[in-house]
């Protein structure tokens, strides 16, 4: 089973182009009937040649006749210029806005790591879980898990505080 999807914008653009084509041919025919020639050119944005056609009666009828074959190109060119002026692509599609990151996302755990590094720096390169909680305001489980991860990654060592026996994380680069 074949499903056909119709694009409303494409149909709308095609309808507008057909309408412009009809009006252009009617204005051209008015030039043959003795009315002012060149109106079809003015209608399609060709001002200079439209005025020339008006004052020379369509280049003495010859230019008016040749334009019968050139009108489709004139209409297509005018529609394309109008789409570009409206901020659309030549095919009538709105351009996709470029996405630019204004900030780099930092996960909560990475933020906690940075806060723990600053806390350790303030304490001479040594930090216990309790001190980390006091400095960062994070939960005990979060601080402990983050410090263990930093230990497994090789960023910190583990030791004991000789005074109270508490587990102390040692940031060797900050000592």
Ends apart, CA distance between termini:
73 Å
Q: How much β-strand is present in the residues?
A: 5-15%
How does the overall form come out from the CA principal axes? rod-shaped
Count every helix, treating DSSP H or I runs of 4 or more residues as helices.
8
The run of helices and strands is HHHHHHEHHEE
Mean pLDDT: 85
Q: What is the gyration radius calculated from CA atoms?
A: 38 Å
Please bin the fraction of helical residues.
55-70%
Class from secondary-structure proportions: mainly alpha
Oligomer: single chain
What strand order characterises the main sheet?
A: 1-3-2
Query: Uncertain regions: pLDDT < 50 for 5+ in a row?
Result: 1-6
Count of DSSP strands: 3
The largest sheet is: 3 strands, antiparallel
Structure description:
The chain has helices spanning 8-32, 39-43, 47-55, 57-60, 62-85, 108-122, 129-136, 140-152; strands at residues 126-127, 157-160, 167-170. The chain is rod-shaped and about 110 Å long. A hairpin with a 6-residue loop joins strand 2 (157-160) and strand 3. It has a three-stranded antiparallel sheet with strand order 1-3-2. The model is unreliable at 1-6 (pLDDT under 50). By secondary structure, the chain is mainly α. It is built from eight helices and three strands, in the order ααααααβααββ.
């Amino acid at each position: 089973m074949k499903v056909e999807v119709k694009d409303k914008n494409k149909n709308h653009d095609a309808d507008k182009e057909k309408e412009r084509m009809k009006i252009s041919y009617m204005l051209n025919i008015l030039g043959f009937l003795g009315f002012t020639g060149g109106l079809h050119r003015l209608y399609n944005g060709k001002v200079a040649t439209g005025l020339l056609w008006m004052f020379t009666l369509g280049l003495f009828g010859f230019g008016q006749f040749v334009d019968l074959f050139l009108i489709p190109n004139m209409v297509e060119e005018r529609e394309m210029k109008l789409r570009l002026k409206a901020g659309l692509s030549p095919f009538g599609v709105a351009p996709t806005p470029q996405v630019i990151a204004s900030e780099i996302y930092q996960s909560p755990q990475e933020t906690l790591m940075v806060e723990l590094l600053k806390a350790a720096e303030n304490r001479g390169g040594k930090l216990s879980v309790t001190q980390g909680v006091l400095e960062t305001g994070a939960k005990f489980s979060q601080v402990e898990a983050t410090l263990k991860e930093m230990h497994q990654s090789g960023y910190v060592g583990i030791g004991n505080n000789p005074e109270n026996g508490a587990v102390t994380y040692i940031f060797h680069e900050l000592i």
